[in-house]
Amino acid sequence: MRFASVACALGSIATAVAAASTQGLYDLVERRLPGRSHDFAFELNETVHVNRTTPQNDHYTVSTASNGSIAISASSVSALATGLRRYFVDIAHVDLYWFIGSRLDQLPPTLPRPNSTITGASIVPWRYFFNTVTFSYTTPFWSWSDWELELDWLALHGVNLPLAWVGFEKILLDAFQEVNLTTSQILPFFSGPAFQAWNRFGNTQGSWGGELPLQWIDQQFELQQKILSRMLELGMTPILPAFTGFVPRALVDVYPNATVVNGSQWEDFPPEFTNTTFLEPSDPLFSELQNIVVTKQLDYYGNITQFYTLDQYNENDPYSGDLGYLRNVTRGTWQSLKAANPGAVWVMQGWLFTSNADFWTNERIEAYLSGVEVDEDMLVLDLFSESQPQWQRTDSYYGKPWIWNQLHDYGGNQGLYGQIDNVTVNPISALANSSSLVGFGLTPEGQEGNEIMYALLLDQAWSPTPIDTAAYFQSWVRTRYTGNNSIPPQLYTAWELLRTSAYNNTNLTSNAVSKAIFELAPNTTHLTNRTGHHPTTINYDPAVVVDAWKNLYAAAATEPALWTNAAYKHDFVDVTRQVYSNAFASTYADLLDVWTHPNSTARPLAAHAASLLLLLRSLDPLLATLPQFNLAPWLASARTLALATPNGSTSAVVADFYEYNARNQITRWGPHGEINDYASKSWGGLVGDYYLPRWLVFLEYLGGVTPAAYEDGAVRARIEGVEAGFQVAGSGLGVRESSGDVRGVVESAVVPALREVGLL
Ligand SMILES: *[C@@H]1O[C@H](CO)[C@@H](O)[C@H](O)[C@H]1NC(C)=O
Ligand SMILES: *[C@@H]1O[C@H](CO)[C@@H](O)[C@H](O)[C@H]1NC(C)=O
Ligand SMILES: *[C@@H]1O[C@H](CO)[C@@H](O)[C@H](O)[C@H]1NC(C)=O
Ligand SMILES: *[C@@H]1O[C@H](CO)[C@@H](O)[C@H](O)[C@H]1NC(C)=O
Ligand SMILES: *[C@@H]1O[C@H](CO)[C@@H](O)[C@H](O)[C@H]1NC(C)=O
Ligand SMILES: *[C@@H]1O[C@H](CO)[C@@H](O)[C@H](O)[C@H]1NC(C)=O
Ligand SMILES: *[C@@H]1O[C@H](CO)[C@@H](O)[C@H](O)[C@H]1NC(C)=O
Ligand SMILES: *[C@@H]1O[C@H](CO)[C@@H](O)[C@H](O)[C@H]1NC(C)=O
Ligand SMILES: *[C@@H]1O[C@H](CO)[C@@H](O)[C@H](O)[C@H]1NC(C)=O
Ligand SMILES: *[C@@H]1O[C@H](CO)[C@@H](O)[C@H](O)[C@H]1NC(C)=O
Ligand SMILES: *[C@@H]1O[C@H](CO)[C@@H](O)[C@H](O)[C@H]1NC(C)=O
Ligand SMILES: *[C@@H]1O[C@H](CO)[C@@H](O)[C@H](O)[C@H]1NC(C)=O
């Protein structure tokens, strides 16, 4: 049996591991379709059952058994889950989605039976998911039920190798205590709940606005135990964290002779919050800490994985570029891992080779990777394969196994976006051209909309030829809008228009999800035509997206029941958001044109300004209708984690600290706006109480000055006043109820506004 030999200290995980059975699948069906699990018969096909020491491709078959059950037989639990989704999507036309949740309950009372045997085979053994920073941009305040949905989604989409970062601070706290640092020397090292990813990377240290409380550390550790247990039940091999070398400043007080280097400078953060202390792997204390970190996790969770995520130079150059030094760093790190767990495989994000390409010349990459002397002991995530792949220039990471990943999104930004050709054609050609490619995966910084793009790559892992996206989009529509409604042809038309416009970016000067300029601090320059990772260029004809919007709207005129379909409501709001984003950019360009070239015959500046404000004022209530586009639930989820374990009068203080983290990340991102607006969001409440006031002060100022008299500092000061005011927890700023009444707001506010700006 797959996990039979595992000795485990933790009851619930031990049970899951020992089972190594199909029970997790029956439980999944019961969670989503209570009482229906007896319709299914899951079976591990022993003839093709893979074991995790030698990953092989997966297989499944779906058929109707002689007793009438829906029979799914497969090579692994993950393949069983993939076969189950194949049944849901292709036979029953239902699925489970981010934001909207499970639509599996839209099944007819009698589950349809397959008429013939359907088979599937993966073309790669590993299907990977998560970026280290997804744990901060998307999941920091997630409850167990949020995780349950996510893990069911991952399982059904065939993911078998997810990152599992939650609760790592508990392990680090234990480890540093064990080498005699005190709690008060350790806690100031950790970053706040919304910023832990960058502390784990060694980019930041410490927390602005308050110190990370022990209650957070304990609570997240408890959550991690549930997450790991569920991952195992659903056939996933979790990737656990390891010791990187980043340590509290106070370590040198306890070990004055420790070999450490300082001097990292991440973004524009002051030394207090960056300049992290890195303990060199050559120091014996490094291996000691590695051993404790790995062993603690073996004790708490069992020997449940051989995969460890470990990044030392993410956006953080090594102390020296000397090839011998680089090789020593990896060799020491690798040896420490193998000493702690002989089966260990070091998983590394390859982002540094993209982001810090100036430092990482090919010979340095080769030297660094060569320190891991056994290729199979490392697994490199080619992090942004659809736009900035590194595997070709590094000759497939000089032989190390690697995974082709679609990153797609930075900071949880929300533009409609896809590179349908690059995520279907390129991974297939990579597989043909690289013998060490072992998986496909997803590495979004933030989990956002555009879910079809994520599903597409995970489905590509089961298709030896590039998926036909026209057919794929059609099938998506058929399944997505299943409900108490017909599916009018305009829905298919709308998605075909999106497929050939917003989802078909081929100009990779702009190479990821786009950003709405109204989310940026108002300015007279640098807003439109930004390229790169947060582009504001519009690489398609915006009229096509307006046309898609019109088709979506017309579909609901044909079939009014769509207004009660959760998937339709979500997509309608999302596409409307994009129409607004594009309209705002063109209106802004017109306004600047009039401001710089005053002309008495043109539409006056004030009229353009009024249009911009009208757009923001009418978009805000639309976004607020649905919780997934509303700020309030994000803030509430943060506060709830503090209040979940009431601790007398301190819980309100803690709740305020968590709320500050939640507000700060999506706005100023740092105590002083160090990476202002990086993780901006088109959310109800944020648009109305943050972006709108910033534009108000800007437009008011602009209306009163000529270009020659414009003073940047004066504008910046006004805008900064708005930004600072929004950070305050408990102010209620941006808090809106979600009414769910999309139709009402569309009719009362959106349609009139779009008419007013000339789009309808
Ligand atoms: C795993 O598979 C390999 C190759 O198929 C085989 O040699 C090995 O014995 C298997 N291990 C277990 C524990 O089944
Ligand atoms: C099990 O796998 C083998 C080899 O692929 C296949 O021939 C057989 O049909 C599978 N059994 C079931 C029940 O799917
Ligand atoms: C199975 O075949 C019957 C008869 O042709 C048909 O009515 C039904 O829709 C088919 N079911 C599926 C799931 O394709
Ligand atoms: C921690 O302190 C204890 C008691 O003073 C000592 O026995 C132990 O060796 C110390 N551990 C380390 C790693 O220095
Ligand atoms: C640190 O190194 C110095 C010089 O080699 C030595 O005298 C001292 O004892 C060492 N201190 C510790 C705590 O190991
Ligand atoms: C970085 O940290 C080290 C060690 O704490 C300190 O000596 C150095 O002055 C710091 N650098 C800056 C720029 O503050
Ligand atoms: C690399 O490590 C070896 C053995 O620990 C040491 O002799 C050598 O000086 C180190 N080289 C560099 C450049 O740090
Ligand atoms: C954990 O399991 C792996 C693979 O089965 C094995 O190589 C390794 O030695 C085990 N580690 C420990 C600490 O028992
Ligand atoms: C992505 O696809 C476009 C054509 O659609 C192609 O020009 C480009 O080279 C591809 N990009 C990468 C990184 O492979
Ligand atoms: C995507 O755009 C490219 C370049 O403009 C074009 O060649 C290709 O046919 C388009 N694909 C689709 C599906 O629209
Ligand atoms: C790609 O986009 C850049 C930036 O917007 C633009 O300058 C360039 O002309 C575009 N290239 C093509 C081929 O459209
Ligand atoms: C506008 O952007 C430029 C370039 O980033 C910057 O120097 C300037 O301070 C900005 N102005 C305002 C008001 O933010």
From TrEMBL:
Signal peptide range: 1-19
Listed InterPro entries: Hex-like_dom2, NAGLU, NAGLU_C, NAGLU_N, NAGLU_tim-barrel
One Gene Ontology term of the molecular function aspect: hydrolase activity
Occurrences of domain Alpha-N-acetylglucosaminidase tim-barrel (ranges): 127-463
Domain spans labelled Alpha-N-acetylglucosaminidase N-terminal: 24-112
Keyword set, alphabetical order: Hydrolase, Signal
Protein name per UniProt: Glycoside hydrolase family 89 protein
Family annotation (PANTHER family): ALPHA-N-ACETYLGLUCOSAMINIDASE
Domain Alpha-N-acetylglucosaminidase C-terminal: 472-735
Organism of derivation: Karstenula rhodostoma CBS 690.94
Keyword Hydrolase: yes
